[in-house]
Amino acid sequence: MSKLIAITGITGTQGGSVANTYLALPGWKVRGLTRNPSSPKAQEWASKGVEMVAADLNDLSSLEKALQGATVIFGVTDFWTIFQDPESMTKKKPGQDITEYCFEVEVAQGKNLADAVAKIHSLDRFVFSSMASAKTASKGKFGGIWHMESKAVVVKYIQQSLPGLKDKFSQIQAPIYYNLLWQWGLPTTPRKDSNGSYIIQGVGPSNILVPFGDVQNDFGQCVKAVVDAKPGTNLLAVGEMLSWDSYLETWCKSQNVPVGRYVEHTIDSFAQLLPGGLGREFGENVLFAQEFAYDGGEAGVVRPEQFGIGMTSFKEYCEKTDFSSIL
Length: 327
Ligand SMILES: NC(=O)c1ccc[n+]([C@@H]2O[C@H](COP(=O)([O-])OP(=O)(O)OC[C@H]3O[C@@H](n4cnc5c(N)ncnc54)[C@H](OP(=O)(O)O)[C@@H]3O)[C@@H](O)[C@H]2O)c1
Known about the structure:
Blueprint: E1 3-7, H1 13-23, E2 28-34, H2 40-47, E3 51-54, H3 60-66, E4 72-75, H4 79-84, H5 86-91, H6 98-117, E5 125-130, H7 134-137, H8 146-161, E6 169-173, E7 176-177, H9 180-183, E8 191-192, E9 198-203, E10 210-213, H10 215-228, E11 234-236, E12 240-242, H11 244-255, E13 259-265, H12 267-273, H13 278-292, H14 314-320
The structure holds NADP nicotinamide-adenine-dinucleotide phosphate.
């Protein structure tokens, strides 16, 4: 009999990668959770043989229903959907930072998901897309990287309040996506200088390595490795460790353009270049990773090479990507 994997976020990057991996595996059926099964993206998955079902992370009962019969559940919550929802501005408390409000909603969504997962009797493994607690790892120095903290709070909730999941729960951490560097309007996007070379702007020293990766392409095979490994596994799905210097150099060489320079900002001047929250969340994420390690230096976090997984290097990503919109 086939096993069933249920995937949240299937119409997005992480969940889509997981779906592609399991669709190609014999003996597996794939079920995708979406808020809107009739959206074009959802329909595309349905046409590939995925059973698409309606579920909302804000609605516990919809999750309980959608997860029935699953052997494996991959769960991702999305901070940025909440951030981009215009209603979030009206729902947050007066004076509250929008990013802190997004944290609260994402935590509630993650707890809903975990509570629903804990009721699935057919379950063998729950793999949750997590991030380190920057607040704990930095002893409070980075206390407000909300898109990280939310996921860490959910993990703590699972570990402390859902003992039934103890022998079924594992984590996977996404690195910073290669495409975030240039497709989200961040100052890290290469920009042509007056002399024809390309410059990037960022935070922190130019030579400290931070984990990046081609999440769309590689994440699914990493999730499969976690599913197949023992419970309690925590995998950082890094493709390549990059510094600002190596990012700029590799990108310029791949596009055959002169290597320019890296412009270092303070977190405040960086956040001003992209106000509203994204600049600060990203900038602090990088500074935290440079000082304390992206995974918070937590013991036992494993890497793809320990499972023999071939990951896409940044050079390979650059060579297959069309950057004409920024050249
Ligand atoms: N970008 C990075 O560099 C990076 C690095 C590490 C971690 N992350 C984390 O990755 C997460 C985002 O993952 P992603 O990039 O795969 O997302 P994505 O491509 O933006 O897609 C978002 C997915 O979330 C689903 N979704 C949103 N709200 C939902 C709700 N209320 N109920 C059910 N499903 C909902 C959407 O499904 P429907 O629209 O079909 O309902 C969609 O499939 C974020 O939390 C972010 O912090 C990102």
